[in-house]
Amino acid sequence: MSTQEQVLEEVSIEDLLSDNSEIVLFNDDHNTFDHVIKTLMTVCKHTSEQAEQCSLIVHYNGKCGVKTGSLSELKPICSSLLDAGLSVEIQ
């Protein structure tokens, strides 16, 4: 006889109904840590610690989610990051 375990996860209704997307930053060979950190602080309103952690995650893992929100909120932010020369996309 096998035993099955059920796990119930609490999810808010707002999370289920929202259409949250994410801006993902990808590693590249031409942007410096300083440029990435300053850009994340300016465009995404990250703290210096948050921007530094994101830059290290991107460096070691190849990508990192840097901002979540609705698609309409993320499009101008994504455009600004692209204009700054970063490799990003909305997922």
How many helices? The count is: 4
| Total strand segments | 3
Computed Rg: 17 Å
Output the structural class: alpha+beta
What is the 3D form?
Answer: globular
Spatial strand sequence of the major β-sheet: 2-1-3
Q: Major sheet: size, sense and barrel closure? A: 3 strands, antiparallel
H/E order of the elements?
Answer: HEHHEHE
Low-confidence residue ranges = none
Give a brief outline of the structure.
With 91 residues, this protein is of the alpha+beta class. The chain has 4 helices and 3 strands, in the order αβααβαβ. Helix 2 (33-43) packs across helix 3 (48-61).
Q: How would you describe the overall organization of this protein?
A:
The chain has a domain of 59 residues. Helices cover 47% and strands 19% of the residues. It is built from 4 helices and 3 strands. Strands 2-1-3 form a 3-stranded antiparallel beta sheet. The protein starts with 12 loop residues before the first helix and ends with a strand.
